[in-house]
Amino acid sequence: ISRVAPHYAATRYSMNLDIFWTRLQKVVAADANFYSVIQGAQMQVDFLVALIWYTLTFTLTWVIALPCTGEAENLFLLIAVAGPLLAYAWYRVALQNYRAFANLLCASVDLFRTDLLKVLRVPLPANAEQERLIWETIEQRLVFGEHSNIVLQTS
User: Fold this and answer.
1) Which residues of the chain have pLDDT under 50?
2) Helix/strand/coil for 15
3) What distance in Å separates the CA atoms of residue 45 and residue 92, rounded to the nearest whole number?
4) C-alpha separations of 46 from 20, 31, 39, 63 in Å
5) What pTM does this model have?
6) Are 16 and 135 in contact (CB under 8 A)?
7) Percent of residues in the chain assigned helix, strand, coil, to nearest 5
8) 65: closest CA among 75, 53, 55, 54?
């Protein structure tokens, strides 16, 4: 799921989202409503991932500690069975939330990529192929320091 948005940006626009996300995120942040939706989705995913790890840590700690006490066999069985099941349930919910977050990232590429070009002072492309070439050229210049010529807009 983590590769959905980068794959989408690369196949649609030849845009390397791993490189451009930080810059695009600044442009997306200008739209407070959309940005808050993305941030909310990311917080939900982060919360659920933390919940998975806390559940697994709690389960493992008590599955090791309870037999050492020699008591609470029922509690041991409850934690040993319910802990992994609960962690798996959190995992499934996290996957659904991560899919929604990935879809929001794809939407942000669609909606804000031309605004990023404006911020970079690159003229908007006339067609899809020209846009692909622009993103590839900017990437080559940023990542590899190639001396490709990028026409910049004045004013």
Assistant:
1) none
2) coil
3) 11
4) 22, 22, 10, 26
5) 0.83
6) yes
7) 80, 0, 20
8) 75
Cα distance between residue 147 and residue 118, in whole Å: 21
* Res 152: pLDDT: 66
- Secondary structure class of 152 (helix, strand, coil): coil
Q: Is the dihedral of CA 120, 153, 127, 27 positive or negative?
A: positive
CA–CA dist 102, 96 (Å, integer): 10
Whether the CB-CB separation of 19 and 120 falls below 8 Å is answered with no
* 124, two tokens: 């908007």
- In terms of Cα–Cα distance, which of 117, 128, 127, 126 is closest to 150? 117
76 burial level (CB within 10 Å; 0-12, 13-18, 19+): middle
